[in-house]
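Sample A.
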Amino acid sequence: MAKLYLKFEKATLQEANLTTAVFTIGRMPDNSFQIDNLAVSARHAKIYWEKDHYVIEDLGSLNGTWVNGQRVGKATLRDGDQIAIGKHFVQFKDEGFKPFAGAPVAEVPAAPKLDETVVLDTKKAQEIIAAKATPNAASGPLGLSKPISHADCGKERVGMLNILEGRTDQPRYVLTGKMAMIGRSAMATIRLKGFFKPKTAALISRRDNKYFISPSDEKSKLKVNSEDVSGQHELKEGDIFEVAGIKAAFSLQE
């Protein structure tokens, strides 16, 4: 079965099996593979089985779909291909099992215009692609996030972070996406200020209406309620965590 891995440096931020005949990628939560970033269009691209191979097709996205550094409208996917979606990189892995041979390709409905996609300059996109190192396929996954359905949205409690100590780009964050990165990187949700801060210090993931925090690597020192944390740790209402010189309080709101 084919898989997609959303990568950042050596970390796998998200992974998913291609278990549907048409697998959509985009910013909206009802996509098969959500990338919650304004440089990603609401319905950005789709992957499907055609004759004897997988195909990726751009869905008229604003910033385009890129495969191995080339912008494509439609392209055959091969094992190990790197797909650039906005500022994110997705690795395609084909393990040889073809479950959808002969399956018809369904039309993807137009996305509602809830918020507009941010234009990513083409030159900037090419610079990002050129600077990207080959993803490390051996990196361990940090956990598969469950897609969020519209029916569940009203029932969910959304995570909040209040920064108590340390320098960040905002004093407060609402964790609406499946994954939030803490670090100095431009891709980070919680941006750390300071030249010597790590690019990635920790990751907060959301699945099954729960939030989990984990250090990005063994060098990152993470504490939750003054206790050292080395793996994934579920965040509870009122928890206080410390990482890379910041202290933050976690809470939930309807």
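Sample B, a different protein:
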Amino acid sequence: MNDKNETPKIIRLAETDSTNNYLREQSAKARLPEGSLVIADFQTAGKGQVGNSWESEAGKNLMFSILLYPDFLPANRQFLISQIASLSVKETLEKYTDSVTVKWPNDIYWKDRKICGMLIENDLSGQHLYCSVVGIGLNINQEIFRSDAPNPISLTQITGKTYDREDVLACFLRIFFNYYFLLLQEKEEEIRAAYMAALYHGDGYYFYIDENGSFEARIHAIEPTGHLILQLRDGERRRYAFKEVTTVVPR
């Protein structure tokens, strides 16, 4: 991972606007070792894909960001970072509960409820990635959600138990870096196959909404670029980038 065998830096904060922002600011001042981590007890402006906000009670959940230098990955395969992060959260949660899936592109669901969101920010150098900041908000011990988010849930709400957040984080990091080493070994198809098998609504026809309205389709494929291919009952296939289509989730 680190070509200079540098020890990753772990930064713990009581509060920050966003762990992604903080990590990017620190790495802009001086290059941090790969695998460096920022963990916060509270975020005042936690965010998800395309500016979505993230509600989290102070000291109850896991909010952290990891710094990577995946310069071996071409820019058009950057979605692999999202895939390994999603799979790592899913497999971590499966140590404690079942019915965990990945809702394209990288929300983590327990049944029809969202337990984790993430924001992955990639910087490019030419045709390859230079660095990636993987930001994750995972609901662990929160008992009540007060925002207007439609379907949040925490591990505590699922099981009725309280968890040591450090134990959950350590489990995630072990799984995540195992997947990262698979990337280094160019085992991309293994990762893509695991991601397809993990998808929310991965089998069967479900309702989706795009700019033209509601329609019924099944997931046909996920392209290496991350684009979603949906197939309608009449065989028509439609291709979507992030935020161009919404999965209809039961309320």
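Observation for Sample B: Residues 48-54 have pLDDT under 50 and may be disordered.
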